Amino acid sequence: MSISAFTNASVPEPHWIAEITPQRGLFDLHLGDLWRYRDLVFLFVRRDFVSVYKQTILGPAWHIIQPLMTTVVFTIVFGNIANLPTDGLPKFLFYMAGNVLWAYFAGCVTKTSETFVANAGIFGKVYFPRLVMPLSVVISNLITFGIQMLIFLGFLAYFYLSGAPVRPNRWLLAAPLLIVMVAGLGLGLGIIVSALTTRYRDLRHLVGFGVQLLMYGTPVVYPLSSVPAKYQALIRWNPATPIIETFRAGFLGGGQVRPLDLAMSALSVLGVLAIGLLLFNRVERTFMDTV
Amino acid sequence: MSTMISVEGVSKKYRLGLIGGGTLKDDLNRWWARVRRKPDPRLKIGQEHLAERMGEEFWALKDVSFEVEQGEVLGIIGRNGAGKSTLLKVLSRVTAPTTGRIRLAGRVASLLEVGTGFHPELTGRENTYLNGAILGMTKREIDRKFDEIVAFSEVEQFIDTPVKRYSSGMYVRLAFAVAAHLDPEILIVDEVLAVGDAAFQKKCLGKMGDVAKGGRTVLFVSHSMAAIASLCSLAVVVVQGRCAEPELPSCALARYLASTPPRSHETRGRYITKVELISCGAQSDAIQCGDGLVVVVRLGDTHGLGELHCAVLVLDADGARVVVFQNSMHSSLRLTGGPAQTIACEVGSLPLVPGSYTVELKLSGPAGAIETVERAANLTIHAADLLGTGKTPVRGQGYIVLPSNWRQVV
User: What's the CA gap between B333 and B308, in Å, rounded?
Assistant: First the structure.
């Protein structure tokens, strides 16, 4: 007895650093792993950024042309033809503010929703935390958004200096928070869809026009104040609504800031993100068997 | 020495027919059908009996357990579809096991296929960083090893050229170089040795050897038996999702060869009633070059034939006699006619050039030939690293594999 105890003691128990089991806890998200792979996130971001514009004439200028053209078209169609109100703000700035932020959201949702299907090849060969992919998408879209934001700020400065009725105010300071909320919402919805598309490919078709339709359910091309009372409640339930409204209110001065709505929106974002992470975590373990 | 990998009762189940199946509508339809206890609407009429098949389970791995110590190079052998790749996928965390537990005492890097994540538009330099990070290196680690990687890959000149302009050889060399410079405690290698020219392959094998000598653990899957025999310290055979304990590569290879069901031979003549080839204790019609072979011959009633001579002949595919074994020439065994008897001819080592052979049996008496059984058995010789160089002669380069020393005299 004592001898066997002695032999046992002389063989050190190996220090396991990883354990692979069929199931893992619902909330066992392995975020530590994600941190260890942070360099990979940024290399993917770099790859996305560099590869998209290689062998193009205009290169990153496309980041600028895209929102400019959209804003011009919105200004003509919604502002001048449909004559939608803009809370008394310059139409161009009004549409640009909404469009730039919405484009970020739409980009995050559509790109992250393709995570599993688009990366099945690489996921089937190497392990790294799958969340690296959607995160890198959100960050590379953030860079695009940043460039577009600069253009927007340029126009804002021009309009402001030439005496247009814009009044940037203290809500402007909420902008970083709003951007994080948009990113969180986009990421959350995107990974929910990505987790479900491993089983139901139909959802891929839904995402494209779903996001487009959702834009009309969000005060992007119209101010919340112009929405008839019977639809107001409905549109205010949309977690993106307070974000866009506050964003515009901060930079341009129009629109309505409702802190309570904003808090609700933040809660919804956290909820969506949590559901997304849970679904994603469940699917990433075995999706290779179904894709 | 400490245990680096511990695999306990790991199984992996796939469901046949349901993989990748379907749309949301299909699932809703099936669910609705289940609720109403109607047959599955996705099945064609008359195929209801297939319903069971649709959900049929397929165990790609079944209760696999083994341990690997630090510094071992464990070879994994098995036929296509035996479960090797699934085992590697589970070990490298690409997919989760259905049951069981795997514990790892170190970082794992897998080279299931080199060049994963290479982007054609990016330069060699950019891809090195990206690929390195995908395989689990941090940016700082890659910074430190960058020069070494580039030197190993032999593409220095083109490191700032997009990889889409690389030749396929350069591409693969760079990809392998990145992978080879990972410093994981556990390295999983699958089939990467099929890349590059002979010189580069040699370099790769050398690199793998270094990795193991550096106290790291390597799992190595290959179809090249010579590579397994020369590189691995232990090997396991995966057969239909199951695997035995790790054992010496030579025994594992013998077991692997024996895992092919031997073809049955309806011999025989009046006196020679049965001929069996046995290798490593099991019936087998395939051995590795240099392995031993036992030919068991059963003789029926031979009363009145007097003194007998039994000869075992090995013929190559062209029918040429490669080697002959005879009881009265090779041993002191004397055979005389009498009741049924079984004799065995044990050959310690049969270093024939890899290929297909047939075994012929001859029985003769004082008056001459009594019986000949042509094609008493088929024998396949597989390549093995008998010369210690990883190379083996092939058909047309003689019949026997013999070692020789070469040196410069003047």
Answer: 10
Q: Quick one: tokens of B270?
A: 């009046």
Q: What percent of chain B has pLDDT over 70?
A: 81
B32's tokens: 């609705």
Cβ contact A188:A105 at 8 Å: no
Beta strands in B186-292 (DSSP E): 186-190, 217-221, 234-239, 242-243, 272-279, 282-283, 286-288
Cross-sheet strand order for the sheet of B341-347: B282-283, B272-279, B293-299, B341-347
* Chain A contacts to B (CB-CB under 8 A): 12, 14-22, 36-37, 39-40, 42-44, 46-47, 50-51, 54-55, 121-128, 199-203, 285-286, 288-291
Between B96, B119, B137, which is nearest A286 by CB?
Answer: B96
Selecting from B2, B90, B122 the residue whose C-beta is nearest the C-beta of A20 gives B90
Residue A85, phi then psi, degrees to nearest 5: -70, 160
The answer for residues whose C-beta is within 8 angstroms of residue A135's C-beta and 6 or more apart is A34, A41, A187
Size of the A and B interface in Cβ pairs below 8 Å:
123
Length of chain A: 291
> At how many degrees (to 10) do helices A202-216 and A91-112 cross?
160
Strand B341-347 versus strand B368-382 pairing type = unpaired
Q: Between residues A7 and A101, which one has the greater pLDDT?
A: A101
The mean predicted confidence, pLDDT, of chain B is 80
Cross-chain CB nearest to A14 (options B2, B27, B92): B2
Chain B residues with CB under 8 Å of A203 CB are 24
- In angstroms and rounded to an integer, the radius of gyration of the C-alpha atoms of chain B is 28
Are residues B58 and B15 in contact, defined by beta-carbon separation less than 8 angstroms? yes
**Cβ of A124 and B94 within 8 Å?**
yes
DSSP secondary structure code for residue A77 in this structure: I
> Do the Cβ atoms of A22 and B99 come within 8 Å?
yes
Residue appearing with tokens 């770099």: A46
- Tell me which chain A residue has its CA closest to the CA of residue B130: A43
Q: Are A285 and A197 in contact (CB under 8 A)?
A: no
pLDDT digits (tens, 9 = 90+) for A86-130: 888 888 999 999 999 999 999 999 999 988 888 888 888 788 888
The span from the first CA to the last CA of chain B, in angstroms, equals 46
Residue among A19, A40, A197, A205 with most chain B CBs within 10 A, to mutate: A40
What is the DSSP track for B353-389? Answer: PSEEEEEEEEEEETTEEEEEEEEEEEEEEE---TTSS
pLDDT tens for B43-94 read 444 444 444 444 567 788 888 999 998 888 898 887 767 788 888 888 888 8
Contact B49, B196 (CB under 8 A): no
Helix (H) or strand (E) holding A165: none
What's the pTM value of the predicted model, to 2 decimals? Answer: 0.70
Rg (CA), chain A: 23
For residue A39, the one-letter residue type is D
